[in-house]
Amino acid sequence: MKRIFLLSALIILSAAASASAQTEAELKQYFEGRCVILKIDMPATKDGVNVYRDRAQPFDYGNYAAKLRQHGKSLRRGDTVMVTKIKVKGKHIEFQLDGGGYGVMGDETPGVYAPVASKSRREKRLEEGLKREEDPYKRRRMREALDELRREREREDNLNRAIAEQAEEAQRSRIEEKALRAGSRFNIHFGAAPTGEALTPEALMRALEEYVEFDDSDYAAEFDSNPEGSVGSKL
User: Fold this and answer.
1) Which of 18, 20, 9 is nearest to 190 (CA)?
2) pLDDT digit string (tens) for 65-124?
3) What letter does residue 193 receive in the DSSP assignment?
4) How many Å apart are CA 165 and CA 39, to the nearest integer?
5) Which of 191, 201, 207, 212 has the fewest C-beta atoms lying within 10 Å of its C-beta?
6) Rounded CA gap, 56 and 66, in Å?
7) Which residues make Cβ contacts (< 8 Å) with residue 193, sequence separation at least 6?
């Protein structure tokens, strides 16, 4: 009995996964490569803009403004941009534009290593000799030599840090410039994994209608080929 229950559960899960993959493929076929016109500015990051379909207020303007301040604008209101990827991912759908935003796998992240100066052989020998030396005069001379070597090592560390900071600043500027050309995305969130009607082009267009205008010239052919005028009926 237990084996039958497990088998039934596996069949249901497999069917659900297959249906999700099928509807994702249909969404990709419908949207990818087509153009939309933005009604809002888009932040220059793969985190994009979140839209929550299960909330009374689907758009968090505070979080949106913070992303624009932190990352700048990669896409601007009124821009005509291409839908480059649709991804059904757990409880949300990614609607990627002009590349999906900077920070995806393979994109450069800021950070430059500053090497730390290691002790020289002389410094190590002096430290070992100081442990054994008993003569006060010689001990004082050895400490003076050690102090000078340590100051020299500290100066080298300071120089390495300064060079690394300059390199990181240049790297950060380069990354910011790349991010401004890497697009952005919408993340449409649902209370549960989207299924059925939620995974139709028509539903996705309704979810984004406050933020995106679907270019009539780009979508006209789809409507003309559909006698009922329904976007979702092609599915």
Assistant:
1) 20
2) 999 998 888 899 999 999 999 999 889 999 999 988 767 656 556 667 788 889 899 989
3) -
4) 39
5) 191
6) 21
7) 20, 90, 91
The two structure tokens encoding residue 72: 């700048």
Cβ neighbours for 16, distance < 8 A, ≥ 6 positions apart = 195
| CB-CB contact of 179 with 71 (8 Å) | yes
Amino acid at the residue 190: F
What are the beta bridge partners of residue 89?
92
Structure tokens at 12: 């249901």
Backbone angles phi, psi at 67, to 5 degrees: -65, -40
Q: Which two tokens stand for residue 195?
A: 């299924």
pTM of the model: 0.60
List beta partners, residue 88.
Answer: 93
Tokens 């030396």 appear where? Answer: 133
